[in-house]
Amino acid sequence: MTDSLRWVKSSYSNNGGQCIEWAPEHAAATGEFLVRDSKDPNGPHLALSRQGFAGLVEFAKSH
Q: For the segment 28-47, what is each residue's pLDDT rounded down to a tens digit?
């Protein structure tokens, strides 16, 4: 299922390679926010709620 998704890199991708990607269309359609490591696109992903994703974004902004 996640192979057919369009993944988008974080806007903070120019920070030395420590990037995440997320699937915005999947989030809009299901309310489930999928997040993965851009360096390992075939690896595992996280499935977050809207609140969990918002918390991750806030954490990233503050660090």
A: 999 999 999 988 989 999 99
Region 19-31: mean pLDDT is 94
- Give dist(CA 15, CA 18) in Å, integer: 6
pLDDT of residue 20: 87
pLDDT of residue 15: 58
Written as one string, the DSSP assignment of the chain is -GGGSPPEE-TTTTTTS--EEE-HHHHHHHS-EEEEETT-TTS-EEEE-HHHHHHHHHHHHH-
Provide the CB-side half-sphere exposure for 58 (13 A, CA): 6
Cβ atoms of 23 and 9 closer than 8 Å: no
